[in-house]
Amino acid sequence: MGGFTKRLKTQLKLHRQAGLYRQPPEILGREGASLHLAEGRVLNFASNDYLGLGASEVLRKQVARNFCKYGSSSSSSRLVSGHYALIAEAERAYARYFGYEEALFFPSGYQANLALLSTLFDSGTTLFFDKHIHASSVKGMALSSAELVGYNHSSLTHLEKRLKKAETRETVVLTESLFSMDGDLLNVSGLADLKEHYGFLCIVDEAHALGVLGERGIGVALPVADIAVGTFGKALGLFGAFLLIPALVKEYLFNFASPLIYSTTLPEAHAASAIDILTLLGDSDESRRHLREISSLMKNRLYAEGFSVQGDAHILAVEIGREQKALEISNRLRKKGIFVLSARYPTVPLGRAILRIGMTALHGEEDVNHFILSLKEVMKEYENGNS
Question: Which one, out of 161, 224, 313, 316, has a CA that is 20 to 30 A from the CA of 179?
Fold first, then answer.
């Protein structure tokens, strides 16, 4: 154990010195757009609860009733005794709502991406991926036998250069519709033009878009995506994830996807709650409108104050640079009652650390004002202390 322990301690020490150490504070509770920490209440700009459903009293009561009615566990994998009719019904409802042939539920988005990307492709496939895709997609691809070819973030020009050189019988393009850290949106029409010309299979991770963007929150990628990845744990206010897929792909995953075959499936209560959520989504136009407006206000205010900010929707990235600086800025903001993520390597490229701002429908103009004022104060204090 001596050498093992020493190695771990050394790696953790180096992680701290590089400003990459992770030690999240314990959350005592949440209330609306705020979190309760040991040091007091903070305004939360690190949440993915974009529509506020995760904090909704209405959804909370619906979920509680469902778990009282159906129990707490499926107690089996989907392929043994966990293939409940209610789960299949919920999957059909999600496929209809979002405009796909079939859907398949998973306990997490990480598991969904792992199952999809590690299972579908063989050595005759070339998988082209945006270099800023999620870590779960990267891990899924690593377990695939496909040839992996990255292209520059959001560069369809670079993607086309890659596609022209493809020699395999199958080509696949993997991207996101709303990127989780950069906050920029996929050029759907441009990608659709490439798809029409090159005939590739298109997979789009819509985790940060479904529920929020598009009519009734159906996302933005339907015109181009053969397969879409969605999550319950962000705008939909629950937990777990789902794939939106052709029926043939669902059949194939049932028979060959290890992460599905060898995992306990989500319980019936989850499926019942998922069906309830679709009704809430359909009635959330006002929340979506408010989220668009408050996100635009935050971006415009940050830009007007001279910050380098990017993001096309409800995810905004304020450029900081050095990892240690981003961590220090985030920590100082917390002392002023603002909770925001300092996204650092390997979540973002080394030396390109950001403050990743998650806007929600729970935020108001006064929250934006508080954030802007606090950030200006903290940046001034930091520059004065390090000049």
Answer: 161
Residues 6+ apart with CB under 8 A from 93: 274, 275, 278
Strand-by-strand arrangement of the 353-358 sheet: 309-310, 315-321, 353-358, 341-343
The span from the CA of 217 to the CA of 204, in Å, is 15
Supply the CATH number for residue 377's domain: 3.90.1150.10
pTM: 0.94
| C-beta separation of 175 from 133 below 8 A | yes
Task: Output the pLDDT for position 387.
Answer: 54
Number of domains in the chain: 2
Residues 6+ apart with CB under 8 A from 108: 233, 239, 240, 241
CATH of the domain at 101: 3.40.640.10
What are the beta bridge partners of residue 241?
106, 231
Structural domain of 300: 26-51+285-385
**Sheet strands (E) in 101-197:** 102-106, 125-130, 147-151, 170-176
Q: What is the pLDDT of residues 124-158, one digit of tens each?
A: 999 999 999 999 999 999 999 999 999 999 999 99
Are 233 and 240 spatial neighbours (Cβ–Cβ below 8 Å)? Answer: yes
Show Cβ contacts of residue 88 under 8 Å, excluding neighbours closer than 6 positions: none
Q: What are phi and psi of 281, to 5 degrees?
A: -60, -45
What torsion do the CA atoms of 291, 112, 86, 248 make, to the nearest 10 degrees?
110
Could you report the per-residue pLDDT of 173-221, keeping only the tens digit for each? 999 999 999 999 999 999 999 999 999 999 999 999 999 999 999 999 9
User: Are the CB atoms for 115 and 260 separated by under 8 Å?
Assistant: yes
Q: Give rounded-to-5 percent helix, strand, coil for the chain.
A: 45, 20, 35
Measured distance CA(374)–CA(368) in Å, rounded: 10
Tell me the two tokens of residue 374: 């606090």
CA distance linking residue 2 with residue 91, whole number of Å: 50
Mean local confidence (pLDDT), 84-107: 98
CA of 208: how far to CAs of 6, 118, 182, 285, in Å? Answer: 40, 22, 12, 17
